[in-house]
Amino acid sequence: MRFDASIHPSSLREIPETARRAEDCGFDALWTSETQHNPFLPIALAAEHSENLQLGTSVAIGFARSPTELAHTAWDLSQQSGGRFILGLGTQVKAHIERRFGMDWPDSPIGKFRELIAGIRSVWERWQQGEELNFRGEYYTLTLMSPFFNPGPIEHPKIPIHIAGVNPGLCRLAGEIANGFHVHPLHSVRYLRESVIPAIKEGADRAQRSLSEVPLTISAFVVNDEKEEQFVRSQIAFYASTPSYRKVMALHGWGDVAEALSAMARRREWDSMPAVITDEMLRLLAVVANEEDTARALKEKYSGLAHRIKLYRPFVPGERDEFWRRLCAEI
């Protein structure tokens, strides 16, 4: 099981030191996310200031970009990093696509996402093999790639594409076409075993692929002290209030709790929501352990399930460096 780090949302000026310190700590990979900053720009800097770290987006929002734009960005980052880049993509939810990005939500999110990834790979094939670009789908038509816009072949053209998601539709799609799957932090082991993995296998079987071709990268909530416990309760409450993540709660018989949290969110009762998360929910949805036992608890929970694991808590150089070193060494 590989142990990775998430980059704290920060200024680009801080990325070189973050990459150097993360590699020094012993992390296997460094992941960016699309929250307060662009997810791709830090990777260019991290690639320049590291030698062995794999670097990836966890995740970039696919529906906010065209296949060709994503193809260009990933192509350049693969070349810049010497083949260490992983393109992690997610769909986001309808409200964010329409109201944060100002774009249309598709009538078939799975269908459009499938085409987006196929379109990216078609553009890459054109650049690497020199064949004509002729991709035609319901959502994207890509038929123009003159030499002026073609960057040409690179040394590491087989760029892995990972899909992030929660619900069975994206899990099945990952099984069919992706090189990995990112598990949302709102999950339980039971949800992985009974929902995520069977759906990935269903997709893999459909495409005559092996389940091992779609390894899981898991983002885990970890609680080491009271301050962190309050933060994790608030994050669980926030995610559980979102209808897209309700299947996780429903599996454990907490559907009414999720509905109550949604109602509280609509009333903007943010400060009251963490108290709704019970100790039982916390134990099932997070790893609760003291610092010294964190690595053991993570391995005990995720061995045999995760290929890669990272904490929901981001890596910040200078904060708890010995804790991070211990986890890297023990995991």
Provide a quick synopsis of the model.
This protein is of the alpha/beta class.
Overall geometry comes to: globular
Radius of gyration using CA atoms only: 20 Å
CATH class category label of the largest domain: Alpha Beta
Instruction: Report strand %.
Output: 5-15%
Mean pLDDT value = 97
CATH superfamily of the largest domain: Luciferase-like domain
Number of domains: 2
Number of helices: 13
Biggest β-sheet: strands ordered side by side in the sheet: 1-2-3-5-8-9-10-13
CATH-assigned fold name of the largest domain: TIM Barrel
Task: Tell me what the CATH architecture of the largest domain is.
Answer: Alpha-Beta Barrel
Alpha-beta content class: alpha/beta
Order of helices and strands: EHEHEEHEHHEEEHEHEEHHHHEHEH
End-to-end separation: 7 Å
What ranges have pLDDT less than 50 throughout 5 or more consecutive residues?
A: none
Main beta sheet: strand number and arrangement? 8 strands, parallel, barrel
Describe what this molecule looks like in 3D.
With 331 residues, the protein is α/β, with parallel strands linked by helices. The protein has two domains: 2-222 and 291-330, Alpha-Beta Barrel (TIM Barrel); 225-288, no CATH class. It contains 13 helices and 13 strands. The protein has helices at 15-25, 41-48, 67-81, 94-99, 109-129, 168-177, 189-206, 226-240, 246-251, 255-266, 279-285, 294-302, 321-330; strands spanning 2-6, 29-32, 54-57, 60-61, 85-90, 135-136, 141-142, 161-165, 180-183, 216-220, 222-223, 287-288, 308-311. An eight-stranded parallel beta barrel has the order 1-2-3-5-8-9-10-13, surrounded by four helices. Strand 8 (161-165), helix 6 (168-177) and strand 9 (180-183) form a beta-alpha-beta unit. Helix 1 packs across helix 2 and helix 3 packs across helix 5. It is globular.
